[in-house]
Write a structure and sequence with these properties.
CATH class of the largest domain: Alpha Beta
Number of domains: 2
Radius of gyration: 21 Å
Structural class: alpha+beta
CATH superfamily of the largest domain: FAD/NAD(P)-binding domain
Oligomer: single chain
Mean pLDDT: 90
Strand content: 25-35%
CATH architecture of the largest domain: 3-Layer(bba) Sandwich
């Protein structure tokens, strides 16, 4: 998804560039009449601007994207609505929504379909790289079928276990959370009211994210043992436990689709660049899903790298030059590390038990609730409408197409 977004951003700037997009599998067929895929993302305003610049946002909105206008956060030590509850409302900063909940499969499908219509893009799939040489005047990628591709820049956007990163010899720092996310889509007694709900439990947060068809997507982070149990118990028992875990925020949970489980960890590549290669998205960093920022951080990587490559091309410089790629690395690595450690700290604070941490949580909630400037800045940061943003992420940029 992030790699396809990067390719679209480059290709939309004109035909003076040649792009090959490699994938180990054929593009999946997206059926808008089928049930939602298991993975969804909370797409921020910055990310929707990036997807607009990539030429796909209108397509995504026309399919099944659900805006969410509020977010309600509370922990297991308080009842929902009690003083420890924090509500974020887009209306407080004069915005129509905080973001949109979109399934990852839809975003990927829209991007691939866009790439198919761009003359400067070649889709090479299924294909698997066997070796990458990223030094010299051109990088070379040797494929398992014996063919070779040469380019001035190689971009690895192949996920947490990135083969590209391994072939480049880039090491990672990895911190397992000893948590697994249970995900599914559920029906509820009451309307989700275009609100995202998140409750922090001792073993991890549980979130209800509003879907366009009236259901909610569940992301329940817990211990691996508990996650295994939650995916194996009967439907009736699971619905009862989820209703209890969410404190009946939407009334009873009345139905569920298939349950899936994904292990969680925080991971960061020690370097985002090597020779004529750069890493973006989960290949460069992985964060906890509690803040819903994983895909947003990856799309910001894509937008930042596209910006520095386009700037280099426009000024006659080599897009694979170390100084060009170093600009991208300095920009995004610092931002991503701050985000990852901030998300990790929030998770640890809410998982910790005891009077001191409880007092800290209450004080933090009170500060946010009683200080509009603090609360509104948190909202703006989460939406991606403040901070050091790439130009493709800025909603007000005049160059943006209405796409």
């Amino acid at each position: 998804m992030v790699g396809a977004a990067f390719a679209c951003l480059l290709a939309e700037q004109g035909d003076e560039i040649s792009i090959a997009v490699l994938d180990i599998r054929e593009p999946a067929i997206f059926d808008a009449g089928a049930d939602y895929g298991p993975r969804v993302s909370a797409i921020s305003r910055a990310s929707s601007s990036i997807l607009k610049a990539a030429g796909v946002w209108k397509t995504i909105l026309a399919a099944r994207a659900s805006p969410y206008r509020e977010m309600c956060v509370w922990d297991s030590g308080h009842r929902i609505g009690a003083p420890g509850t924090v509500r974020f409302d887009a209306a407080d900063i004069g915005e129509a929504e905080l973001g949109h909940i979109v399934e990852n499969d839809l975003i990927q499908h829209a991007l691939i379909e866009r790439l198919k219509h761009l003359d400067c893009v070649s889709l090479v799939c299924p294909a698997r790289a066997a070796e990458i040489q990223a030094t010299g005047r051109r990088a070379s990628i040797s494929l398992e079928d014996g063919s070779t591709l040469r380019a001035r820049l190689v971009v690895g956007a192949d996920g947490t276990g990135s083969p590209t990163r391994e072939m480049l010899g880039i090491e990672t720092r990895c911190q397992p959370y000893d948590q697994t996310a249970v995900v599914c889509h559920v029906s509820t007694e009451r309307s989700h009211l275009q609100t995202a709900w998140q409750r922090f439990l001792p073993e991890g947060p549980v979130a209800l994210l509003p879907l366009a068809d009236g259901r909610s997507s569940v992301v329940w982070s817990t211990s691996p043992e508990e996650a295994r149990r939650l995916t194996e118990i009967g439907t009736k028992e699971f619905l009862e436990e989820l209703t209890h875990a969410t404190e009946g925020a939407l009334g009873r949970i009345t139905g569920t689709g298939q349950r899936f489980a994904f292990p969680l960890r925080m991971q960061s590549a020690r370097s985002y660049i090597s020779g004529r290669a750069a890493l973006i998205g989960d290949a460069a960093h992985t964060v906890h899903p509690l803040a819903g920022q994983g895909v947003n951080l990856g799309l910001l990587d894509a937008a930042a790298l596209a910006e520095v490559v386009i700037d280099a091309k426009d000024s006659g410089r080599d897009p694979g030059d170390f100084r060009v790629l170093r600009r991208y690395e300095r920009w995004r690595k610092a931002e991503n590390l701050v985000a990852a450690h901030g998300i990790d700290a929030i998770g640890r604070l809410f998982r910790a038990r005891g009077p001191v941490t409880g007092a800290l949580r209450r004080a933090g909630a009170a500060l946010v609730n009683e200080t509009p400037l603090v609360k509104n800045e948190i909202v703006r940061r989460a939406m991606g409408i403040s901070g050091d943003l790439p130009k493709f992420a800025r909603p007000s940029e005049a160059w943006q197409k209405q796409a």
